[in-house]
Write a structure and sequence with these properties.
By secondary structure, this protein is α+β, with helices and mostly antiparallel strands. It folds into two domains: 90 residues, Pleckstrin-homology domain (PH domain)/Phosphotyrosine-binding domain (PTB) (PH-domain like), CATH 2.30.29.30; 263 residues, no CATH class. The chain has 16 helices and ten strands.
């Protein structure tokens, strides 16, 4: 079966989060990128590494260069089939979607047959195993787990149901998620009436923001920056990987097999993991980079993300219920990184219609 040889994608130059739409032509030795201004670039298959696109519904992400290099994101996973068809042995190192079902079955069988060995490896803390296992977990199962975690984290908490606040949060979430139309996740935001200054993302798209953090934001752009960062944790499956890395082997087997009863049995453990453990430095940097890119795509001023960290950096942890900084890298380090990758302001930035009323809106949770 032949596949199309031209595809639409998004290119990032590695220096800024501004996306560039490109037309991609799949050829025997590599990919030709055609830019709207008429320029072209050729990427040899040997120069590329695939960092996303191994599970159903996930965008294909190809990177070139060391560290934060050039990146190509393609929403249609069938481009991998075309790459294998055209590139043959030159493209053998890319994932082939046709082998997914066999790989999942093999992974489950191997896990069941080697439980003692796998358990021992996890007990000794080998984090790299979490990546390939996470890639085989169905998105539908991950979404169910996220729903359960969200219920557990808010079970003894009051949620903010003020209609005006809900309307403004829905407007903000719609703005941020509109560029993610190809994502397999449906994102939902819950605001918890608690003074804790924190926000987190459960697997599957459940975002939780605590009143304390909401009230610390000086503008809707600051909250949007936090949400963009957490949304990217979901899309990149950082939370799911963290859970897989630290929960019991029985939970992992339940996840690989799609066992809903296993999810319920170990969901509390997963919720505690998200609350108490931190993402890796690389995961945080990736969420920052992709979060900035999402803000540009949604036409939101990215300076809000940086100003929020400045405000938090002035907090005194011993005098406020500050949780956000304790579970994230140092504020100074993040600010330096964000300033390094953030380009000049985009002329396409659009304000939120409720900016002038933000001082009142951010306090509606406590008033509900």
């Amino acid at each position: 079966m032949s596949h199309p040889t031209e595809w639409n994608g998004t290119y990032y130059d590695g220096h800024s989060p501004i996306p560039h739409h490109v037309r991609i032509k799949v050829e025997p030795l590599g990919l030709t990128l055609k830019f709207p201004n008429g320029l072209t670039d050729f990427w040899k298959y040997q120069e590329l590494r695939q960092t996303q696109g191994r599970y159903s519904g996930e965008e294909v992400r190809l990177e070139r260069g060391h560290g934060i290099g050039e990146t190509l994101v393609v929403p249609n996973q069938n481009i991998l089939r075309a790459i294998h068809q055209e590139g043959q042995t030159h493209a053998a190192h890319f994932h082939h979607p046709g082998t997914r079902s066999k790989r999942v079955v093999f992974t489950i069988v191997a896990a069941l047959a080697c439980i003692p060995a796998i358990y021992a490896m996890f007990a000794w803390g080998i984090p790299w195993l979490a990546g390939p296992i996470t890639a085989t977990i169905p998105v539908s199962w991950e979404t169910q787990l996220g729903d359960f975690i969200q219920q557990e984290l808010t079970r003894n908490q009051s949620t903010c149901e003020h209609p005006e606040l809900a309307d403004k949060m829905n407007t903000m979430m719609t703005r941020l998620t509109t560029p993610l139309s190809q994502s397999p996740y449906a994102f939902h935001l819950t605001v918890v009436d608690s003074p804790v200054i924190n926000a987190l993302a459960a697997p599957g798209g459940r975002l939780i923001v605590f009143r304390g953090l909401l009230q610390k934001t000086e503008s809707p752009q600051e909250l949007a920056g936090v949400l963009a960062h957490e949304i990217q944790h979901v899309r990149l499956r950082h939370g799911m990987r963290l859970i897989v890395q630290h929960v019991s082997m029985a939970f992992i087997i339940a996840a690989l097999s799609g066992d809903a009863s296993g999810m319920i049995a170990y969901g509390l453990q997963a919720a505690q993991t998200l609350q108490t453990l931190s993402y890796s430095r690389d995961a945080e940097r990736q969420a920052d980079q992709e979060g900035l890119a999402l803000l540009y795509q949604a036409h939101v001023d990215p300076n809000g993300m940086m100003s929020f960290f400045v405000n938090l950096g002035n907090e005194q942890p011993d005098s406020s219920p500050l949780r956000y900084l304790s579970t994230h890298p140092s504020t100074e380090e993040r600010l330096q990184y964000l300033q390094t990758i953030s380009p000049a302001p985009s002329p396409h930035i659009l304000p939120f219609s409720f900016e002038q009323d933000w001082g009142q809106i951010r306090n509606l949770c406590h008033a509900s």
